[in-house]
User: Fold this.
Amino acid sequence: MPEFTKRELELLKKAEAYAKIVKDSKVRQKLQDIDLSLNWGQFARHYFSKSASWFYNKFNGIDGNGGEGGFTPEELQQFKGALCDLADRIRRAADTL
Assistant:
């Protein structure tokens, strides 16, 4: 087994903690059915006026520093409204076919 420096061990621990947070993200789990069907970066810019990285951190349940985070209750309401708006837009587009 290779020997790691103290810094490398710290980074490995942080990476493991980050992976667990992402895996356990409740929002991401609830939306796994549509996750690959949407461009979340465009979604973030259109509905939140935020960057893709901001959205992905929230979506994955982390804060900008790698700790636990996620959407605030107000952001979750905004997210829900944005998904409903997008669903309505998709239905209207489908109706034109």
